[in-house]
Amino acid sequence: MLTRTPADITCRLRGQRVEQQDLGQQRMQRVKVKKQNERSVPVQTGRQYRLSEGEVMSFSIAIDGPAGAGKSTVARCAAQKLGFVYVDTGAMYRTIALYMLEHKVDVENQNALEKALSQIEIGVRYQDGMQQMLLNGVDVSGRIRTQEVSDQASVTAAKPAVREKLLNLQRELARHENVIMDGRDIGTRILPDAPLKIFLTASSRERARRRYAELQQKGEVCSLEEIQREIEERDDRDSHRAEAPLRQADDAILLDTSDLSVEEAVDRIVNLAETAMRDAKRKEGARRGIHSPEARIQELKNLMLREDSPLKGQLWVSDDGKAAVYLAASAGFCFGVHRAVDTVYDQIKEGQTPICTYGPIIHNEMVVADLKQHGVMEIDDEVQLSGITEGTVVIRSHGVPQRVYEQIKGQGLKLIDATCPYVKKIHQIVKEKSAEGFQIVIIGNAHHPEVEGIMGWCSSPAIVIGTEEEAQKLVESGIQKPLCVVSQTTFNLKKFHKLVEIITQLRYHESAILNTICNATEERQTEADAIAHIADAMIVIGGRNSSNTQKLVDICRKECESTFFVQTFDDLNLRLVPSRGIVGISAGASTPNNIIEEVSKQCRKTILLNRC
Ligand SMILES: Nc1ncnc2c1ncn2[C@@H]1O[C@H](COP(=O)(O)OP(=O)(O)OP(=O)(O)O)[C@@H](O)[C@H]1O
Ligand SMILES: Nc1ccn([C@@H]2O[C@H](COP(=O)(O)O)[C@@H](O)[C@H]2O)c(=O)n1
Ligand code: SF4
């Protein structure tokens, strides 16, 4: 990716005029924001989103949400990672509030308010990625962070004249910069066309806890209850004012950070941004007609060079540069599958006998057939299990209900647990949360063994939803208990966000929303999505009953019509695969390497070498 030079940006508000110059080679833009009768102040934009060599477009990310949700912390880090400028609009409202407090302006008096506003000049300066606020030329960045200013800011911000004053400055910044802008009305009012909008939230208790910890660290005496009350009052004022109230934009993605670390929240946003940028780029590319295979292969090479690109696989290009095969780095066994398969082979090596697996150890027929040849039997259900009188039972990577553990032990059998640790973590969560009285909601497929296993760790019946209609039904059921939402580890990430958005219409403050889609799945889906975006054909390899492979197929099909789902090379009709352009290969988490290697080798041979 392009790196952004340390930002040193100054913008001023009031009688501003904006000019733009292209500074050629550096691909930098210089924007002068002039106040009448005053020297011009430069705004330099560093990295702009590159479409392809020689072309740039700017990209905005809007983050809104209640106080203390983590907007500034997360937005600042994400901006740093993406090379964007972080714009904290709350600081602008705080600066105006500070003036009103210090000059004892009665903001309820319209004349006094307008007079004061005409005497205020707001300056925004960026140094080393930090936003500094200037009030009539004086740096007030430190003074705007008091509780008194926070409260006054939400009162002042409700005034239309105040919002009007800041609107142009905020829009102007986004016009010339790649920005992540946070506030309350960014997605709904300031940047309604932003290609990525996020509504960041957390329970008011959690937000109060964070503020409390922050203040304690600074050595300030405070009470958690008091902070929570202040936060809730501020949220109430922000959400119920007539002018640009805080609300989630219809097209914003909801991100609840209650149970996320800062790093996790940042990663989510960076991933969402990468996907949204690719979308924007593709649309723009199509508009400008970047169609030739050579141009797209070059484009793919450029993407792969970017440090933070999900495209970390291998690329082979034909001599004439018109055809390429890309093999995803994330294709094949994930950590959990490796671990489960190795566990069974270790038992075989140790000479344990007889060995059974509870369900197929992974969803891959070839692997299961090989284990069968080594004498490993498969038990399909609890009835079959009750017939086993001796030996070892290995629990599959997908996990099983708690009662199955008890049954194995009760029958005096040796239990080897190959449940993936990521799935185990979900078992612990639902066990604890259901005991605390939460209604467990599992986003996934009710008939998938992993979901059946998770259900078997809840102390009261869980609800499973997998479609928007089911999510809507849940909302309409008017359920009273607080919700704890988890996901099947291999669920489609975008679909998960969509369903969470629907469910949280219910009561997002009390709910615990836990995205338990595992990293391996997320990486695989992100890479498949990225390559399918630019590819002319996609080949996805995996077992027919493998849920994660099926998700990859769905993701690829959305991006690339010519997506082929194969279990082995024998299923692939290479005559259907185009001989020009990019062929992408991805594979599910349970697909053995030798199968992937075979498909990749044959594709290269046919597409790259046999070209006339
Ligand atoms: N995901 C997270 N997990 C844990 N702590 C977090 C997380 N995000 C932010 N925090 C902490 O919560 C505190 C509040 O975050 P921050 O100031 O970024 O919130 P904000 O949404 O910008 O609030 P405000 O709108 O009031 O300015 C900070 O101390 C931050 O480190
Ligand atoms: N776009 C925005 C941003 C902020 N506000 C108001 O300012 C207050 C302080 O904001 P912080 O993000 O620094 O906490 C906030 O409570 C809002 O009232 C706004 O209205 N619109
Ligand atoms: S896909 Fe994720 S959760 Fe499933 S086995 Fe692999 S690592 Fe574990």
Automatic annotation (TrEMBL):
Gene3D superfamilies the UniProt entry points to: 3.40.50.11270, 4-hydroxy-3-methylbut-2-enyl diphosphate reductase, catalytic domain, P-loop containing nucleotide triphosphate hydrolases
Active site positions, chain numbering: 450 (proton donor)
Any single GO CC term annotated in Swiss-Prot or TrEMBL for this entry: cytoplasm
Domain Cytidylate kinase span(s) in chain numbering: 61-274
Entry binding sites for [4Fe-4S] cluster: 334, 420, 518
Cofactor descriptive note: Binds 1 [4Fe-4S] cluster per subunit.
UniProt cofactor(s): [4Fe-4S] cluster
Subcellular localization: Cytoplasm
EC number: 2.7.4.25, 1.17.7.4
Domain of life according to the entry: Bacteria
Main location (coarse class): cytoplasm
Catalytic reaction list: CMP + ATP = CDP + ADP; dCMP + ATP = dCDP + ADP; dimethylallyl diphosphate + 2 oxidized [2Fe-2S]-[ferredoxin] + H2O = (2E)-4-hydroxy-3-methylbut-2-enyl diphosphate + 2 reduced [2Fe-2S]-[ferredoxin] + 2 H(+); isopentenyl diphosphate + 2 oxidized [2Fe-2S]-[ferredoxin] + H2O = (2E)-4-hydroxy-3-methylbut-2-enyl diphosphate + 2 reduced [2Fe-2S]-[ferredoxin] + 2 H(+)
Involved pathway(s): Isoprenoid biosynthesis; dimethylallyl diphosphate biosynthesis; dimethylallyl diphosphate from (2E)-4-hydroxy-3-methylbutenyl diphosphate: step 1/1; Isoprenoid biosynthesis; isopentenyl diphosphate biosynthesis via DXP pathway; isopentenyl diphosphate from 1-deoxy-D-xylulose 5-phosphate: step 6/6
Binding residues annotated for isopentenyl diphosphate, in chain numbering: 363, 398, 448, 546-548, 590
InterPro entries linked to this entry: Cytidylate_kin, Cytidylate_kinase_dom, LytB/IspH, P-loop_NTPase
Alphabetical UniProt keywords: 4Fe-4S, ATP-binding, Cytoplasm, Iron, Iron-sulfur, Isoprene biosynthesis, Kinase, Metal-binding, Nucleotide-binding, Oxidoreductase, Transferase
Single Gene Ontology MF annotation: dCMP kinase activity
Binding positions for dimethylallyl diphosphate per the UniProt entry: 363, 398, 448, 546-548, 590
List of residues binding (2E)-4-hydroxy-3-methylbut-2-enyl diphosphate: 363, 398, 448, 489, 546-548, 590
Residues holding ATP: 65-73
Gene Ontology annotations of biological process type: dimethylallyl diphosphate biosynthetic process; isopentenyl diphosphate biosynthetic process, methylerythritol 4-phosphate pathway; pyrimidine nucleotide metabolic process; terpenoid biosynthetic process
Function: Catalyzes the conversion of 1-hydroxy-2-methyl-2-(E)-butenyl 4-diphosphate (HMBPP) into a mixture of isopentenyl diphosphate (IPP) and dimethylallyl diphosphate (DMAPP). Acts in the terminal step of the DOXP/MEP pathway for isoprenoid precursor biosynthesis.
Family per similarity comment: Belongs to the cytidylate kinase family. Type 1 subfamily. Belongs to the IspH family.
Name of the featured protein: Multifunctional fusion protein
Annotated organism of origin: Porcincola intestinalis
Recorded name of the encoding gene: ispH
